[in-house]
Amino acid sequence: MLDRKWIKKVETNIINHKAIEITNDEFLKGIFGCDLDKMHNVLICTRSNESSNWLSRAWNPKKENKFSRDHANYFTVSTFKPTENGSFKRELGYVTGTCCIVLDDLTLSDHIDPDDEKAQIPIEKLPLTPTWVIRTSEGNTQVGYKLSSFIENRDLIDHIYEQFKANKFTDPQGANSNKLMRLPIGFNFKKPKIKNSDNHCLLVYWNLKNTYQLDEIMKTFRIPELTEKSSNSQSEKSTSKGSKCYKPCPPEGFVIQKAIKLGLNPQWKGDGYELTCPWANEHTKNGDKAKYYPPNKEWLLGGFSCKHNHCKDKSIYDLLKFLGLSVEHARGRDLIKDINQETHELNEAITTSLKKTESIYKYNDKVVCVKPGKEKETFNLQILDKSTLKDMLSKCALILSKDAKGEWRAKKVRDLLYSDYVNCKNHSSLDELAGIVHHPVILPNGQLINTKGYDSATGFYFTKALSPHDIRKIESATEEDAQKSLRVLLSKLQEFRFCSEEDRSAALFAILTAVERPILDTATMFLVLANGFGAGKTYLSKVICAFTGPRAYVRVLTIPNTKEEFDKLIFSKLLTCPPCICFDNAIKDLRSYDALPSIITAPKYEGRILGSNQVAAVNTNTFMIVNGNKINVYRDLVRRTIKINLDKGTGSQTFKNPNLLESIEKERGQLTAHVLTIIKAYLNANVHRNGGRNLSSFLDQDNLCRQPLLWLGLTDPATRCFIDQDNDPEKVAFAEILKELWIFFKGNSFNTADLLSKVRQDIKRRSEWISLFHTIGIDCCEEGNKLELNTSMLGSYMSRQIGDHENEFTLTDNGMKRGQRLYRITKTE
Question: Which of the chain's termini has less CB crowding within 10 Å, N or C?
Fold first, then answer.
């Protein structure tokens, strides 16, 4: 998304009519250059009034072309070849290529009129800074992107513009590669919205350094490759109208559609359609009307009745026969023909049909459905398997296969059809889902996203939005507003006994992260510590998690005893896109779960789905918090964890407000607005940071959630994290071991057996060695006046540490001898 400072600059230029001085010729030369040949002509069009013809002529880059400031002046976004007689036609068949992408109907947010049917696309929605912006009327713009190379594939150009229209980045009614766009010097003859406003066009932004490769534009705007999209667009167009595999059921049903076509004039009355009886010419009295009843749960084919004696035995089957329809048409569902070797067409048909009733998406190569949960305001992510697909598809479509007579009938569906669909990784007509978000968020570039439903620009499904009034207040937030919001958030934490101001600040840091976590690629884990039972660590964890989404999601888990169980649990939870995961009452130090550091610092994590052999990837943008008494983190978790310390005081914590969680749930919308106000005020202030230490690997979290608190004068919530990194017990222990190994072996090679032998000989310092080994996570004890340790764990640890150094000592690999790895300590002088 666009940088907020850039947007403000452009908005200011538009509002103040501040134009960049440039001629139309200079503008076109900047985009297309001067070396165009006879087969690559930019066409220009000048109109003296709204009723003028759209006559186009070739622009001559070698001379000055005449343009009037009071005429409507246009250029083609593509180049054209001349017709057989040497003239020019702005038709698709004559397009020879382009070196720019131009979008229309981009509007300033303050000028969007909900009553205007014209396309109005917020300029903030753009994910990439344009090369130029032309103000075309009050609040409206056209933006362009210059390409670094010339693109001659017209199908690719048209495909890109079709995708822009589908994703609502440009005027959906506009042309594609043969479109005309406005030049910077010219006039807009369309009636202005604001009386007496100046309708001259203005170039309000121009930066040729913003030149992009086509791949960069396609990736940023989430445009699939042509091979995918061409089949997608063709399939979507064909499937919406029907194809060889797919016949969509019209809203009124096949029966009524055919009845209308045959002139039976069906009209809805009461519980069914009254229509002219097909056999009315055989009636002698009682009129010519009959009744058709649409299908329901009891009558799968619907029903037919006619009061006339002649028709008393007529049934729905007779009506269908008269209409030339099968019983499958009577069911009121889409019809999908299972044609052999047409897997892609079948998959597209299934997708089109499912989209009518379900919110389905791609999620890391899996087809998923976003469904409302059982509890209020909750939404669940469900991966489609064969049985789920069967159930969903049965509500909207019938799968037909040929019977012995060669007729298409609803029979038992082959299992492979469902398997092919759920296992396919090329569902080009499905949008990619990034996750489920339960409130508005501010993106790393400063843009505030406030929408409901699927947002194609970010890929997120939003379940809740704030009011326009709240959003306007957030967008214009000041430091004073941020201080007020900070006081509101602090009031929710006032009863907790924090050990220091740093811990209170860390709790606020956790709250800001809880709100922003879905859009952060990576974020630290939070660890709530207490020096005894009854300090309120579980309650604080739940209070923080309540900011991630509806309270129904705030459920605590117990950390499993083994690495394997932990990996299975964490992956199964991440599969459902939960807003938070809270591990309660951890009873031992966190060091042995290999999955946890990866999940914290990687945007995606792969694992095996329980009960199957399928490997799937999940997004890790879930807020993670752990609590426990007198525990610690080691190894890779040290720099990935922010600690919040609580004091148990003289007894169990008793809260004066026992309904704190309920009040947060009730006020969640306003509390979210306060969090966003703090972040937005900091971004609006455009504070220049004076260096200082950052949370490496978590820069977006640092900028959006930590820096605003420092700006407001709070103690740094990451202070203890930095101290722990510098004084990591394992790091200190490893340094001590390296030093002792240098003394033991004097730079000579050794194996783990040699190391154990030396340690056993050092009887006086045995307790120190046991403490060192425990610190680095190796089982070690004294049995019968003899030191025993797990040599397998020691060997694994030493192998992992090869190449690491502390102070002047480095552990190096010295090859193998008799099947055992040799190590050596080197010293830097």
Answer: C
Q: What residues does 218 pair with on adjacent strands?
A: none
Give the C-alpha separation, 179 to 160, whole Å: 13
Residue carrying structure tokens 């200011």: 12
Structure tokens at 755: 């190391």
- Cα separation, 465 vs 496, in Å, equals 30
Ordered alpha helix ranges (H), 412-549? 415-423, 468-475, 479-491, 501-516, 537-545
Q: Is 404 exposed, middle or buried (0-12, 13-18, 19+ CB in 10 A)?
A: exposed
**Span between the terminal Cα atoms of the chain, in Å:** 50
Q: Reduced to 3 DSSP states, what percent helix, strand and coil does the chain have, rounded to the nearest 5?
A: 35, 25, 40
Nearest Cα to Cα of residue 164 among 213, 98, 224: 224
pLDDT at 727: 78
The neighbouring-strand residues paired with 44 are 57, 75
Question: Which residues pair with residue 435 across a beta bridge?
Answer: 460
Q: Among all chains, which residue has been given the structure tokens 């220091």?
A: 500
pLDDT of residue 118: 63
Give the max Cα distance, the chain. 119
User: Would you state the pLDDT for residue 228?
Assistant: 42
Q: Would you say 476 and 4 are in contact if contact means Cβ atoms under 8 Å apart? A: no
Token readout for 306 is 């006619």
Residues 6+ apart with CB under 8 A from 196: none
Q: In angstroms, rounded to a whole number, what is the distance separating the alpha carbons of residues 390 and 369?
A: 13
- DSSP codes of every residue in 752-776: HHHHHHHHHH-GGGHHHHHHHHHHT
What SS3 class is residue 255? helix
* 580-586 and 623-629 strand pairing: parallel
Question: 202 with 184: CB under 8 angstroms?
Answer: yes
* pLDDT, position 500: 94
| Residue of 376, 551, 486 whose CA lies nearest to 709 | 486
- Model's pTM, two decimal places? 0.64
**DSSP letter string over 510-563?**
HHHHHHHGGG-S---EEEEEESSTTS-HHHHHHHHHTTTS-GGG--EEPPPSSH
Q: Over the Cα atoms of the chain, what is R_g? A: 34
